[in-house]
Amino acid sequence: MSKTALVVDDSPTMRQMVTFTLTSAGFTVVEAENGKDAVNKISGVPKMDLVVTDLNMPEMDGIALIKELRKLATFKFTPILMLTTESAVETKLEGKEAGATGWIVKPFNPEVLMKVIAKVLPS
Amino acid sequence: MSSEFGQFQDAFFEEAGEHLAIVEEGLLQLEQHPEDLDLLNKIFRSAHSIKGTSGMFGFNAVAQFTHKMETLLDLLRNGQKVVTPAIADLLLKSTDCLKILIEAAKQNSSVDDPTVQELTEELAAASSAENIQSGPSKSGHTAEPLSATTQEFTIQWTPPGWLFQRGLDPVQIIKELNQIGVLADVSVDVSKLPDLNEVDPERCYLSWSMRLGTNADRDDVESVFEFVKEDSTLTIEEVRGKELGVRSEGTSGADKASSALYPSPLTPDGSDNEPKPLGEILVESGVVSRQTLDNALSQQKRVGQILVDQKAATPQQVEQALQKQRQMEAVAQAKKTDNTSIRVDTAKIDKLINLVGELVITQSMLSDLGSRFEMTQLHVLLERMAQLERNTREIQERVMSIRMLPIGTAFSRFPRLVRDLSSKAGKKIQLVLSGEETELDKTVIESIGDPLTHLVRNSADHGLETPDERLDDNKPEMGTIRLNAFHEGGSICITVEDDGRGLNRDRILAKAVKQGLVAEGEKLSDDQIWPLIFKPGFSTAEKITDVSGRGVGMDVVKRNIEALGGTVSIKTVMGKGTTFTLKLPLTLAIIEGMTVRVGRETYIVPLLSILESIQPKPQSVKTVVGKGELINVRGTYLPMVRLYEVFTLEPEHTEPTKGILLILETEGERVAVMVDEILGQQQVVIKSMEQNFRKVEGIAGATILGDGTVGFILDVRGLLEIARQESAVVAA
């Protein structure tokens, strides 16, 4: 059975690129355009293998989404990667406090993305 | 760069365009509401998006420039800086610059406009130097040592207790270590593990120690622990290298490691390899200064000039060649910028898919019925046919609606335009937009941008008075331009309204007489005078300004709108203001038509142009010398056209009193057209005559009728012309 991933980003282009990379690697992807959308889309979904989320988004940002996800039994231990352009320490700290597993610094290419995913996801 | 992502470039440019519009609109609003945090966040998000995504495609210039803008925006939204007019202005200019950069990225060219550098510096200056984070790290991957000797590390790692709660798995990390080298003596320290009844299953109580033999260097090993190292107690000691291990606690080298792991595409690796112009290299190596180079370049002669000097070519030939070059450039530009994709709301597509589903069901019901049809089931057949018709019509409407976009996209450029115009002309102008949500065909939206811009410029420059003049006239100092869009019947109306001085009847008339458009002493009604401003080369502006007044424009406006099958009308009151009304068809492909019969031929008359249909009394038909046949409709005489005469057909009736007269109107003029019979009303898809055959006077296009035959669509304007010509012939 293929692995499942939730991709959350308000930029359609960014979503497409992440989804493209993940589907090429055999993932089944659910896309959401912000935190709120993501929460709606995963309600009722049993479990997913991976979450990749942007931080800066309207409606509900990435940090809030991570906090929400960690409250759910199904997402308690799921690897969550945040997409970030800020190499700033605070953003990472904030994300980690919220429960993010790791981060990917934009810009990245497909190889880097898959490499980071391999770090957090048992193959 | 990552070529796999190349296929998403178009999507990026489209998205970037939307973000630019959001930034620009936001900045303009920000001038009115400098405190609006939501607005700032919105602008920031868009800039941030452009930066992030452009970097993905290796558009470094765009990414770096946007980063500078973003830095300033970040300070603004954090309240560390206040939005001043100067800052707003700088950001607006930067947005323009960003547009140029993105356009250049699209054309795959680079921008060497000095303003980019200037603005970059200004942005940097506006964001105070302290507490600004630096841009994405430029340090590349640390090169592997040439002498790749196998090294050995001893690693001791105590992960944080909440490791699992962040979705991290220690086993995964150890596995990764095993991938970059060979692990040995891996042991787990379980001494911290409490009694079983006290164990919190979500906490990690374990720590590990191990030996790692690897070709990788220390940074690579550290990067395995990237996501946990700040919170772990981690010791990595190099054994063979005799180097003391550094205790890695807290913030040690984390950022360095992360940037080393992810080589940033911002590293200039593509552009730098391209050969540079000689001058650039000389400047970089410090042989000459930038200024010296610029001076030298400005003295350099153009190829054309050299050829002329050597008498190898005449100036005319060079000029012609240059002209050709410009044309080719323009064509190339047009090809590149022609954007044919369209973004559709998924809801619209879902509905469409639903409808197609229904269509399939109807079709299968019909074929089921057809396979064992008996006359007693006729009513069922008719019912299903009606259903089919309903499905088809709905699908048609939905498909058409996919091409429909809110006109707001065409309006969005005006706040900026008016802002710039008002500062340039020294007038106070407010722009009021309404009806932005009105939907119309994408092609129409794209084509009305320029005409609307002309009209808005015209209103700002000619229509509105200076603040002093307005105060003298007891008007508010601030002039108003209103843009409104609304549906009216089958068309869309767009009005451009100003509360300025109104058109000057006498001045227009004087100018028209001077230009020979109107004979001296001729009496004209207002409605005849106003359209004169649409004549080519007509401008009554006393002085030509930067904004408008060169007499180009208004005729182009009229021509463009008419090319779309629309009309322009003017309403004006001296001293109160002027309103231009553009009336456009919703779509160019389908019209609502009335089918009529003449003899055995069927024609379609655009429903919008039909005012009424009458059967005249014998005494109301008159023939007047010089005017041809006229028909008296409630006291007004209209020219009459017998359709069978125009198309030389064998009619059923030759007497107007036996046939039917359709009263048609276009651009305020009316004509009566005589036909034999009105058949009904239907929607028709217009097929161009010019493209498939050639232009035929009095015919606007053709369509396929219900019975499969071709029907011609009447051109009301053409019929009016024919009526005029006939009267001229009769007069002669």
What does this structure look like?
The complex is a heterodimer of chains A (123) and B (732). Chain A is of the alpha/beta class and 123 residues long. Chain A has helices at 12-24, 35-42, 62-71, 89-98, 110-120; strands spanning 4-8, 28-32, 50-54, 80-84, 102-105. Chain A has one domain (4-118): 3-Layer(aba) Sandwich (Rossmann fold), CATH 3.40.50. Chain A is 42% helix and 20% strand. Chain A has five helices and five strands. The radius of gyration of chain A is 13 Å and the shape is globular. Chain B is of the alpha+beta class. Chain B folds into six domains: 3-126, Four Helix Bundle (Hemerythrin (Met), subunit A); 151-261, Alpha-Beta Plaits; 276-337, no CATH class; 346-402; 406-585, 2-Layer Sandwich (Heat Shock Protein 90), CATH 3.30.565.10; 590-731, OB fold (Dihydrolipoamide Acetyltransferase, E2P) (Beta Barrel), CATH 2.40.50. In chain B, the strands form five sheets. In chain B, strands 15-19-20-18-17-16 form a six-stranded mixed beta sheet. Chain B is extended and about 115 Å long. Chain B starts with 8 loop residues before the first helix and ends with a helix. Residues 129-149, 241-274, 334-339 and 542-551 of chain B have low confidence and may be disordered. Chains A and B meet through helix 1, strand 5 and helix 5 of A and helix 1, helix 2, helix 6 and helix 8 of B.
**CATH topology (level 3) name of chain A:** Rossmann fold
Based on secondary structure, the structural category of chain B is alpha+beta
Strand-residue fraction of chain A? 15-25%
Helix content of chain A: 40-55%
Oligomer: heterodimer
Number of helices of chain A: 5
Helix coverage percent of residues of chain B?
40-55%
Question: What is the overall shape of chain A?
Answer: globular
Structural class of chain A: alpha/beta
Summarize the structure.
Chain A has helices at residues 12-24, 35-42, 62-71, 89-98, 110-120, and strands spanning 4-8, 28-32, 50-54, 80-84, 102-105.
